[in-house]
């Protein structure tokens, strides 16, 4: 007699194995570039392992304490693109969240107004890209931020993020 709990644990273990099986090349998904992006809430340092101090912005670094667990990640994203923000070559990354991500972003920007969101990306390197201040409620699921990255790096980040979003959106088939 097979237990449903045992079956669930086996499926869970196989799923975890599939997710961690590509650790030798985290910047590739099926031969394509991959970028993983996470949004972390600013918090007060409390000396526990639930938060960490990070350095954001390479030219003029600032230190900030963020929660270790991401509040949003690519699993909540629907699309990503580069947008021009001025006539002088300034650019930003526009992330559109799916329905669950939109609800979570709405909650976070309502509840944590006045705090920062630390945004990290992992592609060929791992870097903290930005820490925009939450100044208003974002209820439409569209988040635009200026990354601490060159145009070429930003293009790689967005292209890799699109590849990851496509993979995440595929239906899981046993």
Structure characterization notes:
With 174 residues, the protein is an alpha+beta fold. Helices cover 28% and strands 31% of the residues. It is globular, with a radius of gyration of 18 Å. The model is unreliable at 20-25 (pLDDT under 50).
Task: Output the radius of gyration.
Answer: 18 Å
Oligomer: single chain
Q: Name the helicity range.
A: 25-40%
CATH class: Alpha Beta
For this structure, the CATH topology is Gyrase A, domain 2
Q: Please, what is the average pLDDT?
A: 87
Contiguous helical run count: 3
Our estimate of the beta-strand percent is 25-35%
* CATH architecture annotation name: 2-Layer Sandwich
Number of domains: 1
Please give the order of strands in the largest beta sheet: 6-3-9-10
Major sheet: size, sense and barrel closure? 4 strands, antiparallel
Write the layout of secondary structure elements.
Elements: H1 4-20, E1 28-29, E2 32-33, E3 36-41, E4 51-56, E5 62-67, E6 72-73, E7 77-84, E8 91-97, H2 99-111, E9 117-122, E10 126-130, E11 142-145, H3 151-169
Antiparallel strand pairs: 1-2, 3-6, 3-9, 4-5, 7-8, 8-11, 9-10
In brief, what are we looking at here?
Helix content is 28%, strand content 31%. It contains three helices and eleven strands.
């Amino acid at each position: 007699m097979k237990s449903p709990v045992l079956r669930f644990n086996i499926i869970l273990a196989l799923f975890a194995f599939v997710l961690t099986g590509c650790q030798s090349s985290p910047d590739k998904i099926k031969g394509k570039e991959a970028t993983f992006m996470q949004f972390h809430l600013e918090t007060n340092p409390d000396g526990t392992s639930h938060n960490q101090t990070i350095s954001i912005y390479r030219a003029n670094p600032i230190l900030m304490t963020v929660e270790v667990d991401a509040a949003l990640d690519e699993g909540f994203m629907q699309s990503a693109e580069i947008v021009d923000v001025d006539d002088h070559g300034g650019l930003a990354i526009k992330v559109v969240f799916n329905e669950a991500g939109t609800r979570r972003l709405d909650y976070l920007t309502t509840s944590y107004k006045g705090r920062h969101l630390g945004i990290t990306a992992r592609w060929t390197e791992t870097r903290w890209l930005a820490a925009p201040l939450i100044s208003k409620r974002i209820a439409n699921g569209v988040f635009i931020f200026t990354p601490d990255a060159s145009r070429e790096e930003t293009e790689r980040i967005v292209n890799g993020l699109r590849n990851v979003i496509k993979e995440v959106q595929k239906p899981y088939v046993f």
